[in-house]
């Protein structure tokens, strides 16, 4: 079994006993390079206009999880379809509009708390 949470401090201690969740691993939120790869991989089926610079987009997504990045692409594709049902590509403007709807799910305080939890020995690797 594999589980994921942004609130490891709320995991029931009974789940952490031997024989249950054997390993707890802290995974850093994606940095700009990881977000770019997430966007590139998730966007393979979404045609992007030549004005879309994934490096630039990824750099502006601090606090976005992998799921947030994927949701941003989906919303940008929907924005393009709303703009024109015949839209051939998702443009930089479509992505900018989508960012107004799809917000980062990780705030800086939450990320700091996760890092603290991960480094104080509460997570076994």
From TrEMBL:
<protein>
    <submittedName>
        <fullName>ATPase</fullName>
        <ecNumber>3.4.24.-</ecNumber>
        <ecNumber>3.6.1.-</ecNumber>
    </submittedName>
</protein>
<dbReference type="GO" id="GO:0005524">
    <property type="term" value="F:ATP binding"/>
</dbReference>
<keyword id="KW-0547">Nucleotide-binding</keyword>
<dbReference type="InterPro" id="IPR050168">
    <property type="entry name" value="AAA_ATPase_domain"/>
</dbReference>
<dbReference type="InterPro" id="IPR027417">
    <property type="entry name" value="P-loop_NTPase"/>
</dbReference>
<feature type="domain" description="AAA ATPase AAA+ lid">
    <location>
        <begin position="51"/>
        <end position="95"/>
    </location>
</feature>
<keyword id="KW-0067">ATP-binding</keyword>
<dbReference type="GO" id="GO:0016887">
    <property type="term" value="F:ATP hydrolysis activity"/>
</dbReference>
<keyword id="KW-0378">Hydrolase</keyword>
<dbReference type="Pfam" id="PF17862">
    <property type="entry name" value="AAA_lid_3"/>
</dbReference>
<dbReference type="InterPro" id="IPR041569">
    <property type="entry name" value="AAA_lid_3"/>
</dbReference>
């Amino acid at each position: 079994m594999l589980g994921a949470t942004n609130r490891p401090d709320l995991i029931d201690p009974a789940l952490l006993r031997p024989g249950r969740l054997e390993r707890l691993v802290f995974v850093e939120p994606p940095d700009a390079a990881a977000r770019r790869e997430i966007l590139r991989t998730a966007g393979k089926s979404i045609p992007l206009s030549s004005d879309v610079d994934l490096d630039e987009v990824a750099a502006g997504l601090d606090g976005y999880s992998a799921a947030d990045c994927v949701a941003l692409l989906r919303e940008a594709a929907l924005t393009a379809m709303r703009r024109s049902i015949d839209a051939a590509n998702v443009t930089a403007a479509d992505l900018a509009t989508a960012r107004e709807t799809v917000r980062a799910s990780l705030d800086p305080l939450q990320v700091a708390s996760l890092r603290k939890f991960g480094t104080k020995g509460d997570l076994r690797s």
